[in-house]
Amino acid sequence: MSDIILRLAIAAPLDRLFDYLPPVDATGGLQPGLRVRAPFGRQTVVAYIVAVVDHTGVPRAQLKRVVEVLDAQPLLSGIMWDLLAWVASYYHHPLGEVIATALPVRLREGKAATAIASGMPRWVLAVPVDQAGLALQRAPQQMRIAAALAAHPAGLSVAALTALLGVGAGVALRGLRDKSLVMQCVASGSLPTVTTSVAPPLNAAQQAAVSRITAAQGFNVFLLEGVTGSGKTEVYLAAIVAALQRGRQALVLVPEISLTPQTLARFNDRLGVHLAVLHSGLTDNERLNAWLEARSGYARVVLGTRSAVFTPLPDLGLVIVDEEHDLSYKQQDGLRYSARDFALRYAQRGNVPVVLGSATPALESLANVQRQRYQRLALPERAGDAKPPQLTLLDVRRQPMTANIAAPLILAIRHHLAAGEQVLMFLNRRGYAPVLLCHDCGWVADCARCHARYTLHQQRKRLICHHCDSQAVVPAQCPHCTSLDLRPIGYGTQRLADELTALFPAVNILRIDRDTMRNKGALSAAMSEVRSGQAQLLVGTQMLAKGHDFPNVTLVAVLDADQGLYSTDFRATEHLAQLIIQVAGRAGRGVKPGRVVIQTHNPDHPLLQILVHRGYAAYAAAALEERYAARLPPYAHLALARAEASGARAAHDFLQATLLRAGRPPLTQLEILGPVPAPMERRAGRHRAQMLFSAVERRDLHAWLNVWRAAAAEAPGARQVRWSLDVDPVDLY
Ligand code: ADP
Ligand code: ZN
Ligand code: ZN
């Protein structure tokens, strides 16, 4: 008997597809990429048709029927559909979960793939109002719209404009858009103010980079290695403009932290096309609208953070990944994908150029330049008149310290502040102090659920665990010996800012970290305080370290570089080197030269020495040699299996059992380390273990992962422990 069977991907942690009968009233046109609603277990879920077949191994009586088909046209098709299948196989993750991860929440929930009105784009003026006025003397209706928009810098919807005018605003708006006087903004809540910014004339290095990118035929990977402040963004903008002129769309990925209103405004101003912005601050409706605008081709540029990489773009012409080394591109839970790596695949499948930009490229990317897979484009100098900052190590051993700052650094701070310049103090630890200690008995406030200390948050009078977010009140006396002498040990940004206030009472101090920037709009307000010069002394975590352009900051102090020197993670030094160079890059971006002072108890440490005296490229070259000798990435490929359970040994025993079941692979092709306890052995009340797989050849690793994963699903304990696989892990914790 010939049947129509729908083979579905379902967002469930099961590595298989599921066969269903079509709905009784199905009218044909069933095809891959359509969403359906189907009974699954005791619920009805949204699922995705992967194939329409005419036979199944499932006995007829057990076949369930799809309840309804949700789309008339496939939601995903072509390149994106193929790429998601690739993701499922590369990350060894169920296809249904991959598709669900890639889709906006609303679509995942089964909502119609049509724009949701509340989040509809708004119109804003694209030029100053007097300029618009000049151009519109003979178009009164358009003039009225321009005036209304000038009075509403946050933008107005077509409906609002229609209400204001008393007649339909659509035609006049289109007229204005064709003259490039207005543009549409996605209603992201943080609409940039309209300024006029013109492209500076590109310098020779920028020009050369742009020419190489725009001349590229088809898939080419460019690593744009530009020192901080070298004008990489100008290169992106020029390359995007060229792609737009060819009628293509561009996809631009930025790390979460650098998607500031300033960045947005710069792109909006300069591109003059509809930009879809995708980031974690959007509501679900806004996200759906932006996604639809991109997929329809209406948005010509997509600017977004990690998950924006899954946006289907019908006219894709260029892919850009800014700060390609940034760790935020790797998702750390669920589907542990790398947006950078996916972006490369996307460009490859779309046969378009891709630009990876960074001042501190990932070692993986540098190795790919060595292997001639990527073409290097260099911006060796800062744009405009800015000079490179000067880095010095400050040996703090035996120095008197005030507020965790050595005396010579305090002098330097005074000096720069007195000259009317700004100073940035970098300390990558928020809160007041990382440890609360009883001076009488040695008791330390530990998180009850993690193998970790509580961080003291003085202002909120709370002990907070930075790993599981659990909180406790600060005890008035030691719970162990009742002593009242409880002391904060060490420094977080809060304590630093407090003590700096005492040290510099007349100075305006601004603290920028996740605690102070919790509210929407706080970061952008802080940025304007910095720009206006109102804030003189800036204290911050990595939130302050990356991407920002503060022309009047002339001194940057890295207070605790040593933290990163002691880690057991082989990537820790790479991340430390990148962070130091990125922070240092905030100094001297204007006309005045910048200085960077790095406090350390290890002034002779080879990493610090090479970084300070010879720069990131020299560090990277040395690090690559070490990685080669040790057969570590990029010269080997890793996957990390993690497991956690409430019982003390369950996670470990489970991992052990998976190995027994899978049968050990030939050791020459694959190395297995573990199972061992995770570096943080207990977290959020669960015991954790892990196991590292390493192979020189990627295909050996993946062949093994297929075997291992099947074994893991069947291994004893698989249902009692929570386990996951992290392919190409960036952090081994
Ligand atoms: P990066 O992204 O490499 O850190 P940006 O693109 O943000 O650098 O540029 C740093 C600063 O230099 C910005 O203020 C930018 O406007 C300016 N700039 C970039 N290119 C030029 C140029 N060719 N001439 C003058 N100023 C430039
Ligand atoms: Zn005590
Ligand atoms: Zn905890």
Descriptive overview:
By secondary structure, the chain is of the alpha/beta class. Helices cover 32% and strands 23% of the residues. It has 22 helices and 32 strands. The strands form eight sheets. Strands 11-12-10-13-14-9-15 form a seven-stranded parallel sheet, with helices on both faces. Helix 1 packs across helix 12, helix 5 (140-151) packs across helix 7 and helix 19 (606-614) runs antiparallel to helix 20 (616-629). The longest helix has 17 residues, at 698-714. The radius of gyration is 28 Å and the shape is globular. The structure holds adenosine-5'-diphosphate and zinc ion (ZN) (2 copies). Residues 438, 440-441, 443, 478, 480-481, 483 line the site of one zinc ion.
What is the C-alpha radius of gyration, as a whole number of Å? 28 Å
Q: Indicate the multimeric state.
A: single chain
Bound small molecules, deduplicated? adenosine-5'-diphosphate, zinc ion
Shape: globular
Largest sheet: 7 strands, parallel
Strand order of the largest sheet: 11-12-10-13-14-9-15
What is the structural class?
alpha/beta
What is the percent of helical residues?
25-40%
| Unreliable segments of 5+ consecutive residues | 187-196
Brief rundown of the structure:
The chain is an alpha/beta fold.
